[in-house]
Amino acid sequence: MSATMEKLSTNQVKLTVTVSKQDFEKAMNTAYGKLKGRLAVPGFRKGKAPRKVIENYYGSGVLVEEAFNTVLPDSYDKAVEETGIQPVAQPEIDIDSIGAGEDCVYTATVYVRPEVTLGQYKGVAAPAAKWEVTAEQIDQEIDRAAERVSRMVDVEGRAAQMGDTANINYAGSVDGVPFEGGTSENMPLELGSGMFIPGFEEQIVGMNIGEERDLNVKFPEDYRATELAGKDAVFHVKLNSLSCKEKPEINDEFAKDVSEFDTLEEYRADVEKKLNDQAKTAAENERTDKLIEAVCQNATVDIPQPMVERQIDQRVNEMAMRMSYQGLKIEDFLKYTGQTMEQMRQGYAEAAKKQVLAEVVLDAIRKAEGIDATSEEVDAEIAKYADSAEKSAEDIKKTLSESDMEYFAEMVKTQKTIDLIVANSVEAE
User: Fold this and answer.
1) Which domain holds residue 400?
2) In a domain, 174, yes or no
3) What is the pLDDT of residues 259-287, one digit of tens each?
4) One domain for residues 21 and 107
5) How far is CA 376 from the centre of its chain?
6) Pick from 207, 215, 108: nearest CA to 164
7) Which terminus in the chain has less CB density within 10 A, N or C?
Protein backbone atom coordinates (compact mmCIF):
# COMPACT_ATOMS: atom_id res chain seq x y z
CA MET A 1 0.00 0.00 0.00
CA SER A 2 1.20 3.52 -0.81
CA ALA A 3 -0.47 6.88 -0.41
CA THR A 4 0.00 10.47 -1.54
CA MET A 5 -1.77 13.53 -0.19
CA GLU A 6 -3.05 16.63 -1.98
CA LYS A 7 -4.22 19.63 0.05
CA LEU A 8 -7.48 20.96 -1.31
CA SER A 9 -7.85 23.69 1.32
CA THR A 10 -6.81 24.44 4.89
CA ASN A 11 -9.31 21.87 6.14
CA GLN A 12 -9.70 19.29 3.37
CA VAL A 13 -7.28 16.88 1.68
CA LYS A 14 -7.43 14.20 -0.98
CA LEU A 15 -5.54 10.95 -0.44
CA THR A 16 -4.66 8.81 -3.42
CA VAL A 17 -4.21 5.26 -2.18
CA THR A 18 -2.71 2.42 -4.19
CA VAL A 19 -3.21 -1.17 -3.09
CA SER A 20 -0.76 -3.45 -4.91
CA LYS A 21 -2.13 -6.06 -7.27
CA GLN A 22 -0.63 -8.76 -5.02
CA ASP A 23 -2.58 -7.49 -1.99
CA PHE A 24 -5.70 -7.00 -4.06
CA GLU A 25 -5.37 -10.56 -5.36
CA LYS A 26 -5.34 -11.78 -1.74
CA ALA A 27 -8.52 -9.75 -1.15
CA MET A 28 -10.09 -11.35 -4.25
CA ASN A 29 -9.38 -14.78 -2.77
CA THR A 30 -10.89 -13.66 0.54
CA ALA A 31 -13.96 -12.40 -1.34
CA TYR A 32 -14.24 -15.74 -3.14
CA GLY A 33 -14.14 -17.53 0.21
CA LYS A 34 -16.95 -15.35 1.53
CA LEU A 35 -19.22 -15.46 -1.52
CA LYS A 36 -18.78 -18.95 -3.01
CA GLY A 37 -21.38 -20.46 -0.72
CA ARG A 38 -24.00 -17.95 -1.91
CA LEU A 39 -23.39 -18.21 -5.66
CA ALA A 40 -25.08 -21.02 -7.60
CA VAL A 41 -23.32 -22.36 -10.71
CA PRO A 42 -24.96 -25.09 -12.85
CA GLY A 43 -23.19 -28.42 -12.39
CA PHE A 44 -21.68 -27.51 -9.01
CA ARG A 45 -22.99 -27.72 -5.52
CA LYS A 46 -23.06 -24.35 -3.70
CA GLY A 47 -19.66 -23.53 -2.32
CA LYS A 48 -17.86 -26.05 -4.54
CA ALA A 49 -17.44 -24.07 -7.78
CA PRO A 50 -13.82 -22.94 -8.38
CA ARG A 51 -13.11 -19.20 -8.43
CA LYS A 52 -12.39 -19.19 -12.19
CA VAL A 53 -15.70 -20.88 -12.89
CA ILE A 54 -17.58 -18.31 -10.76
CA GLU A 55 -15.78 -15.42 -12.50
CA ASN A 56 -16.53 -16.88 -15.94
CA TYR A 57 -20.18 -17.42 -15.06
CA TYR A 58 -20.92 -14.19 -13.16
CA GLY A 59 -18.06 -12.00 -14.36
CA SER A 60 -15.00 -11.01 -12.28
CA GLY A 61 -16.89 -7.97 -11.01
CA VAL A 62 -18.87 -10.18 -8.66
CA LEU A 63 -15.76 -10.51 -6.46
CA VAL A 64 -14.23 -7.08 -7.05
CA GLU A 65 -16.72 -5.13 -4.94
CA GLU A 66 -16.33 -7.49 -1.99
CA ALA A 67 -12.54 -7.40 -2.38
CA PHE A 68 -12.56 -3.60 -2.36
CA ASN A 69 -14.66 -3.55 0.83
CA THR A 70 -12.04 -5.87 2.32
CA VAL A 71 -8.99 -3.72 1.50
CA LEU A 72 -10.59 -0.30 2.10
CA PRO A 73 -10.63 -0.02 5.94
CA ASP A 74 -7.07 -1.19 6.54
CA SER A 75 -5.54 0.66 3.58
CA TYR A 76 -7.33 3.91 4.48
CA ASP A 77 -6.19 3.69 8.13
CA LYS A 78 -2.60 3.09 6.99
CA ALA A 79 -2.83 6.04 4.55
CA VAL A 80 -4.03 8.30 7.38
CA GLU A 81 -1.16 7.16 9.58
CA GLU A 82 1.40 7.50 6.77
CA THR A 83 0.34 11.02 5.82
CA GLY A 84 -0.18 12.19 9.41
CA ILE A 85 -3.58 13.79 8.80
CA GLN A 86 -6.30 14.11 11.44
CA PRO A 87 -9.67 13.33 9.80
CA VAL A 88 -12.75 14.88 11.40
CA ALA A 89 -15.34 13.16 9.21
CA GLN A 90 -15.88 10.07 7.10
CA PRO A 91 -14.08 10.19 3.73
CA GLU A 92 -15.71 10.43 0.32
CA ILE A 93 -14.36 7.48 -1.68
CA ASP A 94 -13.90 7.41 -5.47
CA ILE A 95 -12.36 4.44 -7.28
CA ASP A 96 -9.85 5.31 -10.02
CA SER A 97 -8.93 1.81 -11.15
CA ILE A 98 -9.82 -1.65 -9.94
CA GLY A 99 -9.91 -5.19 -11.24
CA ALA A 100 -8.46 -8.67 -10.93
CA GLY A 101 -4.73 -8.79 -11.63
CA GLU A 102 -4.13 -5.02 -11.33
CA ASP A 103 -3.40 -2.41 -8.71
CA CYS A 104 -6.43 -0.96 -6.93
CA VAL A 105 -6.27 2.84 -6.88
CA TYR A 106 -8.81 5.00 -5.11
CA THR A 107 -9.07 8.52 -3.70
CA ALA A 108 -10.38 9.52 -0.28
CA THR A 109 -11.47 13.14 0.06
CA VAL A 110 -11.80 14.02 3.71
CA TYR A 111 -12.15 16.99 6.04
CA VAL A 112 -9.25 17.25 8.48
CA ARG A 113 -8.49 19.19 11.60
CA PRO A 114 -7.92 22.70 10.23
CA GLU A 115 -4.69 24.63 10.10
CA VAL A 116 -4.58 27.58 12.49
CA THR A 117 -2.64 30.77 11.88
CA LEU A 118 -2.33 32.31 15.31
CA GLY A 119 -2.61 36.01 15.87
CA GLN A 120 -1.93 37.84 19.12
CA TYR A 121 -2.64 35.73 22.18
CA LYS A 122 -0.34 37.43 24.68
CA GLY A 123 -1.04 40.94 25.87
CA VAL A 124 -4.71 40.69 24.88
CA ALA A 125 -6.86 43.33 26.60
CA ALA A 126 -10.11 42.81 28.49
CA PRO A 127 -11.85 44.80 31.26
CA ALA A 128 -10.82 43.89 34.78
CA ALA A 129 -13.05 41.43 36.62
CA LYS A 130 -15.37 43.43 38.86
CA TRP A 131 -18.09 42.28 41.19
CA GLU A 132 -20.19 43.55 44.07
CA VAL A 133 -22.35 41.85 46.66
CA THR A 134 -24.98 44.12 48.17
CA ALA A 135 -26.75 43.91 51.51
CA GLU A 136 -29.97 43.33 49.58
CA GLN A 137 -28.49 40.25 47.88
CA ILE A 138 -27.38 38.88 51.25
CA ASP A 139 -30.89 39.46 52.66
CA GLN A 140 -32.43 37.69 49.65
CA GLU A 141 -30.15 34.66 50.09
CA ILE A 142 -31.03 34.41 53.78
CA ASP A 143 -34.71 34.81 52.92
CA ARG A 144 -34.43 31.91 50.45
CA ALA A 145 -32.97 29.78 53.24
CA ALA A 146 -35.93 30.75 55.41
CA GLU A 147 -38.32 29.81 52.60
CA ARG A 148 -36.75 26.36 52.40
CA VAL A 149 -37.41 25.65 56.07
CA SER A 150 -40.81 27.34 56.26
CA ARG A 151 -43.87 25.28 57.18
CA MET A 152 -47.46 25.34 56.03
CA VAL A 153 -50.04 26.52 58.60
CA ASP A 154 -53.82 26.82 58.41
CA VAL A 155 -55.22 30.28 57.81
CA GLU A 156 -58.17 31.40 59.93
CA GLY A 157 -60.03 34.66 60.39
CA ARG A 158 -59.15 36.32 57.10
CA ALA A 159 -59.86 36.15 53.37
CA ALA A 160 -57.63 34.56 50.74
CA GLN A 161 -54.52 36.46 49.66
CA MET A 162 -51.95 36.03 46.92
CA GLY A 163 -49.35 33.50 48.10
CA ASP A 164 -51.90 31.43 50.02
CA THR A 165 -52.60 27.85 49.05
CA ALA A 166 -56.34 27.49 48.53
CA ASN A 167 -58.11 24.13 48.65
CA ILE A 168 -61.05 24.43 46.25
CA ASN A 169 -63.87 22.61 44.51
CA TYR A 170 -64.67 23.92 41.05
CA ALA A 171 -66.97 23.16 38.13
CA GLY A 172 -66.52 24.92 34.78
CA SER A 173 -68.98 25.47 31.96
CA VAL A 174 -69.14 27.21 28.60
CA ASP A 175 -72.57 28.60 27.61
CA GLY A 176 -74.00 26.69 30.59
CA VAL A 177 -72.64 23.34 29.39
CA PRO A 178 -69.99 21.57 31.53
CA PHE A 179 -66.86 20.61 29.60
CA GLU A 180 -64.52 17.67 29.97
CA GLY A 181 -61.82 18.16 32.61
CA GLY A 182 -63.51 21.23 34.03
CA THR A 183 -64.53 19.75 37.39
CA SER A 184 -62.46 18.88 40.46
CA GLU A 185 -62.73 18.61 44.24
CA ASN A 186 -60.19 19.37 46.98
CA MET A 187 -57.78 20.85 44.48
CA PRO A 188 -54.79 22.65 46.10
CA LEU A 189 -53.91 25.86 44.26
CA GLU A 190 -51.18 28.33 45.18
CA LEU A 191 -52.61 31.74 44.40
CA GLY A 192 -50.27 33.61 42.11
CA SER A 193 -48.62 30.49 40.72
CA GLY A 194 -50.22 30.93 37.28
CA MET A 195 -51.37 27.29 37.20
CA PHE A 196 -54.86 28.24 36.03
CA ILE A 197 -55.96 30.43 33.13
CA PRO A 198 -55.61 34.22 33.54
CA GLY A 199 -58.11 35.79 35.95
CA PHE A 200 -58.97 32.57 37.79
CA GLU A 201 -56.60 32.85 40.74
CA GLU A 202 -57.04 36.60 41.06
CA GLN A 203 -60.81 36.21 41.60
CA ILE A 204 -60.29 33.76 44.49
CA VAL A 205 -58.44 36.51 46.37
CA GLY A 206 -60.88 37.97 48.91
CA MET A 207 -62.94 34.80 49.30
CA ASN A 208 -63.52 33.46 52.80
CA ILE A 209 -63.40 29.80 53.83
CA GLY A 210 -66.71 28.11 52.96
CA GLU A 211 -67.66 30.84 50.47
CA GLU A 212 -68.84 29.96 46.95
CA ARG A 213 -68.40 32.24 43.94
CA ASP A 214 -68.81 32.23 40.14
CA LEU A 215 -65.60 33.21 38.37
CA ASN A 216 -65.90 34.64 34.86
CA VAL A 217 -62.81 33.92 32.73
CA LYS A 218 -61.76 33.62 29.08
CA PHE A 219 -59.63 30.81 27.72
CA PRO A 220 -56.53 32.02 25.84
CA GLU A 221 -56.67 31.95 22.04
CA ASP A 222 -53.76 29.49 21.97
CA TYR A 223 -55.20 27.18 24.66
CA ARG A 224 -54.09 23.57 24.16
CA ALA A 225 -57.70 22.28 24.08
CA THR A 226 -58.69 23.89 20.79
CA GLU A 227 -62.44 23.38 21.45
CA LEU A 228 -62.13 25.81 24.41
CA ALA A 229 -59.61 28.27 22.92
CA GLY A 230 -60.84 31.86 23.03
CA LYS A 231 -64.16 31.00 24.71
CA ASP A 232 -65.76 32.64 27.74
CA ALA A 233 -66.29 30.31 30.69
CA VAL A 234 -67.79 30.34 34.17
CA PHE A 235 -66.26 28.39 37.06
CA HIS A 236 -68.35 27.82 40.17
CA VAL A 237 -65.80 27.68 42.99
CA LYS A 238 -66.03 26.78 46.67
CA LEU A 239 -63.14 27.64 49.00
CA ASN A 240 -62.70 24.69 51.35
CA SER A 241 -59.66 25.83 53.31
CA LEU A 242 -56.61 28.10 53.25
CA SER A 243 -53.02 27.60 54.26
CA CYS A 244 -49.90 29.66 53.96
CA LYS A 245 -46.17 29.38 54.47
CA GLU A 246 -44.92 30.44 57.86
CA LYS A 247 -41.31 31.47 57.66
CA PRO A 248 -39.17 31.33 60.81
CA GLU A 249 -38.02 34.52 62.43
CA ILE A 250 -34.55 35.50 61.22
CA ASN A 251 -32.54 35.34 64.43
CA ASP A 252 -29.81 33.34 66.17
CA GLU A 253 -32.05 30.28 66.53
CA PHE A 254 -32.74 30.34 62.79
CA ALA A 255 -28.99 30.56 62.12
CA LYS A 256 -28.40 27.47 64.29
CA ASP A 257 -31.12 25.55 62.41
CA VAL A 258 -29.84 26.26 58.89
CA SER A 259 -26.07 26.45 59.39
CA GLU A 260 -23.12 25.46 61.55
CA PHE A 261 -23.06 28.88 63.22
CA ASP A 262 -24.43 29.92 66.59
CA THR A 263 -25.33 33.51 65.75
CA LEU A 264 -27.08 35.30 62.93
CA GLU A 265 -24.09 37.61 62.61
CA GLU A 266 -21.73 34.70 61.93
CA TYR A 267 -24.20 33.10 59.52
CA ARG A 268 -24.68 36.37 57.65
CA ALA A 269 -20.90 36.82 57.34
CA ASP A 270 -20.61 33.31 55.89
CA VAL A 271 -23.41 33.99 53.39
CA GLU A 272 -21.63 37.19 52.34
CA LYS A 273 -18.35 35.34 51.84
CA LYS A 274 -19.96 32.62 49.72
CA LEU A 275 -21.80 35.17 47.57
CA ASN A 276 -18.53 37.07 47.12
CA ASP A 277 -16.74 33.90 46.09
CA GLN A 278 -19.48 33.06 43.58
CA ALA A 279 -19.54 36.60 42.19
CA LYS A 280 -15.75 36.69 41.91
CA THR A 281 -15.66 33.37 40.05
CA ALA A 282 -18.43 34.50 37.70
CA ALA A 283 -16.66 37.80 36.97
CA GLU A 284 -13.32 36.10 36.36
CA ASN A 285 -14.93 33.50 34.10
CA GLU A 286 -16.64 36.25 32.13
CA ARG A 287 -13.30 38.04 31.64
CA THR A 288 -11.64 34.77 30.61
CA ASP A 289 -14.39 34.14 28.06
CA LYS A 290 -13.80 37.60 26.57
CA LEU A 291 -10.06 36.95 26.33
CA ILE A 292 -10.57 33.60 24.59
CA GLU A 293 -13.06 35.19 22.21
CA ALA A 294 -10.53 37.92 21.37
CA VAL A 295 -7.74 35.37 20.84
CA CYS A 296 -10.01 33.40 18.49
CA GLN A 297 -10.84 36.57 16.55
CA ASN A 298 -7.12 37.25 16.16
CA ALA A 299 -6.53 33.78 14.67
CA THR A 300 -7.20 32.67 11.10
CA VAL A 301 -8.87 29.29 10.77
CA ASP A 302 -11.48 27.67 8.53
CA ILE A 303 -13.63 25.37 10.68
CA PRO A 304 -14.92 22.34 8.72
CA GLN A 305 -18.68 21.96 9.00
CA PRO A 306 -18.50 18.30 10.11
CA MET A 307 -16.76 19.42 13.33
CA VAL A 308 -19.62 21.84 14.00
CA GLU A 309 -22.22 19.17 13.23
CA ARG A 310 -20.53 16.78 15.65
CA GLN A 311 -20.66 19.40 18.39
CA ILE A 312 -24.35 20.04 17.61
CA ASP A 313 -24.96 16.27 17.83
CA GLN A 314 -23.40 16.30 21.30
CA ARG A 315 -25.62 19.16 22.45
CA VAL A 316 -28.76 17.49 21.11
CA ASN A 317 -27.80 14.24 22.86
CA GLU A 318 -27.23 16.11 26.12
CA MET A 319 -30.65 17.74 25.79
CA ALA A 320 -32.24 14.34 25.12
CA MET A 321 -30.52 12.97 28.24
CA ARG A 322 -31.84 15.84 30.40
CA MET A 323 -35.32 15.29 29.00
CA SER A 324 -35.12 11.58 29.80
CA TYR A 325 -34.37 12.40 33.45
CA GLN A 326 -37.75 14.17 33.49
CA GLY A 327 -39.48 11.22 31.84
CA LEU A 328 -39.79 13.04 28.53
CA LYS A 329 -38.71 12.02 25.04
CA ILE A 330 -37.04 14.68 22.94
CA GLU A 331 -39.65 14.08 20.23
CA ASP A 332 -42.36 15.03 22.73
CA PHE A 333 -40.37 18.07 23.86
CA LEU A 334 -40.12 19.27 20.26
CA LYS A 335 -43.87 18.77 19.82
CA TYR A 336 -44.70 20.71 22.99
CA THR A 337 -42.39 23.58 22.02
CA GLY A 338 -43.52 23.64 18.40
CA GLN A 339 -39.99 23.05 17.08
CA THR A 340 -38.53 20.76 14.47
CA MET A 341 -35.25 18.92 15.03
CA GLU A 342 -33.69 21.07 12.32
CA GLN A 343 -34.77 24.24 14.15
CA MET A 344 -33.29 22.91 17.40
CA ARG A 345 -30.02 22.10 15.66
CA GLN A 346 -29.94 25.52 14.06
CA GLY A 347 -30.40 27.08 17.48
CA TYR A 348 -27.24 25.34 18.65
CA ALA A 349 -25.21 26.13 15.53
CA GLU A 350 -23.59 29.45 16.53
CA ALA A 351 -22.56 28.31 20.01
CA ALA A 352 -21.28 25.01 18.60
CA LYS A 353 -19.09 26.79 16.05
CA LYS A 354 -17.69 29.09 18.75
CA GLN A 355 -16.82 26.13 20.93
CA VAL A 356 -15.08 24.25 18.11
CA LEU A 357 -13.18 27.42 17.17
CA ALA A 358 -12.00 27.89 20.75
CA GLU A 359 -10.91 24.24 20.96
CA VAL A 360 -8.75 24.32 17.81
CA VAL A 361 -7.23 27.74 18.59
CA LEU A 362 -6.38 26.78 22.18
CA ASP A 363 -4.86 23.53 20.89
CA ALA A 364 -2.71 25.51 18.43
CA ILE A 365 -1.49 27.78 21.25
CA ARG A 366 -0.74 24.75 23.42
CA LYS A 367 1.44 23.28 20.68
CA ALA A 368 3.13 26.61 19.96
CA GLU A 369 4.01 26.99 23.66
CA GLY A 370 4.93 23.33 24.20
CA ILE A 371 2.40 22.97 27.01
CA ASP A 372 2.07 19.47 28.41
CA ALA A 373 0.53 17.77 31.45
CA THR A 374 2.60 16.10 34.13
CA SER A 375 1.41 12.93 35.84
CA GLU A 376 1.06 14.91 39.09
CA GLU A 377 -1.19 17.45 37.38
CA VAL A 378 -3.34 14.70 35.88
CA ASP A 379 -3.61 13.02 39.29
CA ALA A 380 -4.70 16.34 40.81
CA GLU A 381 -7.42 16.70 38.14
CA ILE A 382 -8.64 13.18 38.82
CA ALA A 383 -8.66 13.95 42.55
CA LYS A 384 -10.91 16.97 41.93
CA TYR A 385 -13.29 14.83 39.92
CA ALA A 386 -13.25 12.13 42.61
CA ASP A 387 -14.04 14.71 45.27
CA SER A 388 -17.06 15.97 43.31
CA ALA A 389 -18.23 12.37 42.91
CA GLU A 390 -17.65 11.75 46.64
CA LYS A 391 -15.28 8.88 45.89
CA SER A 392 -11.59 8.30 46.47
CA ALA A 393 -9.12 9.13 43.72
CA GLU A 394 -7.71 5.59 43.99
CA ASP A 395 -11.13 4.05 43.32
CA ILE A 396 -11.73 6.35 40.36
CA LYS A 397 -8.33 5.60 38.82
CA LYS A 398 -9.05 1.87 38.91
CA THR A 399 -11.99 2.41 36.55
CA LEU A 400 -10.22 4.68 34.05
CA SER A 401 -9.22 3.47 30.61
CA GLU A 402 -6.28 4.82 28.62
CA SER A 403 -8.63 7.17 26.72
CA ASP A 404 -10.11 8.36 30.03
CA MET A 405 -6.63 9.22 31.29
CA GLU A 406 -5.95 11.10 28.07
CA TYR A 407 -9.20 13.04 28.59
CA PHE A 408 -8.00 14.24 32.01
CA ALA A 409 -4.61 15.10 30.53
CA GLU A 410 -6.30 17.17 27.81
CA MET A 411 -8.29 19.02 30.50
CA VAL A 412 -5.04 19.93 32.24
CA LYS A 413 -3.38 21.07 29.01
CA THR A 414 -6.37 23.20 28.04
CA GLN A 415 -6.57 24.84 31.47
CA LYS A 416 -2.83 25.58 31.44
CA THR A 417 -3.23 27.18 28.01
CA ILE A 418 -6.11 29.34 29.26
CA ASP A 419 -4.07 30.26 32.34
CA LEU A 420 -1.24 31.40 30.07
CA ILE A 421 -3.59 33.67 28.11
CA VAL A 422 -5.04 35.15 31.30
CA ALA A 423 -1.63 35.60 32.98
CA ASN A 424 -0.33 37.50 29.95
CA SER A 425 -3.43 39.63 29.44
CA VAL A 426 -3.76 43.33 30.20
CA GLU A 427 -6.62 45.37 31.57
CA ALA A 428 -8.54 47.34 28.99
CA GLU A 429 -8.60 51.10 29.45
Assistant:
1) 371-429
2) yes
3) 999 999 999 999 999 999 999 999 999 99
4) yes
5) 30
6) 207
7) C
